[in-house]
Amino acid sequence: MDSVIYRKSTGEHLFDGFNIALLLLLSAVTLYPLLYVLFASVSNPVAMARGGPLFWSLKGMNFAAYQAVFSNAMIAYGYRNTLLYMTLGTTLNVLMTAFGGYALSRKGLPGQKILMLAIVFTMQFTGGMIPSFLLVYNIGIYDTIWAVILPNAIATMNLIIMRTSFASVPVELEESARLDGAGDFTILFRIFMPISRALVAVIIMFYAVGHWNDFMTGLIYLRNRLLYPLQLVLREILIQENLQESMGGITQDREIISANIKYATIVVATLPILCVYPFVQKYFVKGVMIGSIKQ
Q: Same structural domain for residues 113 and 29?
């Protein structure tokens, strides 16, 4: 049988060319700010002050901004604390979200509709900052690592997505496991979690990025500077630079690299996440699709 050769029409070629041009434009618009910040953080401060296009050529090479940032003793504490909050917090987040999603996905759960209504209600209405602060203070976790981790233990949207994913698992698998003597914990961790591993990877990434970028929780609930996350430490560095500039209490050399320091703090805060993201991005579309399927 002769093979059929498909030839694209002129309209299809034009459509493909338009899509390619549009995607290249969007890529350039997205990539330019990232490269600008990276180049600005390692460029010669004097050359940067003279202006000119930075994207097309790196203006010298100078790491004085990074030396100024990492000379702050709090940077090490900030990294340590953020890694602790991200690791411990993400583990607790995923476990509690999985427990809640599994329980809510089981048919016959007493008061299931009322529980779901109460959970969805929290997406639209919250107690507010002051009641939340009073609650954290009165239960005795204020100015501790638990004040950063426990108030955000479960994200409602992630709970709903995981509940939908677990509800799509064939009931025959659960029945077969129960006939073999498996309990709820075994079913959850040996069947449901492995089947939904793409979704679990997405939720882990959501929680981890949230903990890495979170500074408002620490700003409200922490007084001890040794417990500050990295974002709060970098915020202090930027505030100190701006304050010294406005009051004139900054040396000429420091003033020259002041702008570079701001760019360097951005790189320090975002580079770790940018390095991890390419390794987990393949799970995003697949994971969200799994969470949206219903049977």
A: no
Confidence of residue 139 (pLDDT cuts 50, 70, 90): very high
Q: What is the pTM of this model?
A: 0.78
Domain ranges, residue 116: 74-226+282-292
Contact 260, 98 (CB under 8 A): no
CA 241 vs CA 61, 216, 230: distances in Å = 22, 20, 17
Here the tokens at position 283 are 């799970």
Going by C-alpha positions, the residue among 177, 187, 175, 181 that lies closest to residue 101 is 187
| Predicted local confidence at residue 295, as pLDDT | 46
Q: Are residues 128 and 215 in the same domain?
A: yes
The C-alpha R_g of the chain, in whole angstroms, comes to: 25
- Are 54 and 78 found together in one domain? no
Mean pLDDT of the 254-261 span: 68
Q: How many domains does the chain have?
A: 2
User: pLDDT of 159-197, one tens digit each?
Assistant: 998 898 888 888 888 888 888 888 888 999 988 888 888
Q: What angle do CA 280, 283, 289 make, to 5 degrees?
A: 155
Give dist(CA 208, CA 248) in Å, integer: 39
Q: How many CA atoms lie within 13 A of 196 on its CB side?
A: 32
CATH number (domain holding residue 218)? 1.10.3720.10
Tokens 């701001």 belong to 262
Does residue 88 contact residue 145 with C-beta atoms inside 8 Å? yes
Same domain, 188 and 219: yes
The residue from 32, 62, 92 where one domain ends is 62
Which of 13, 40, 62 is the last residue before a domain boundary? 62
Among 42-51, 68-77, 246-255, the range with the most confident prediction by mean pLDDT is: 68-77
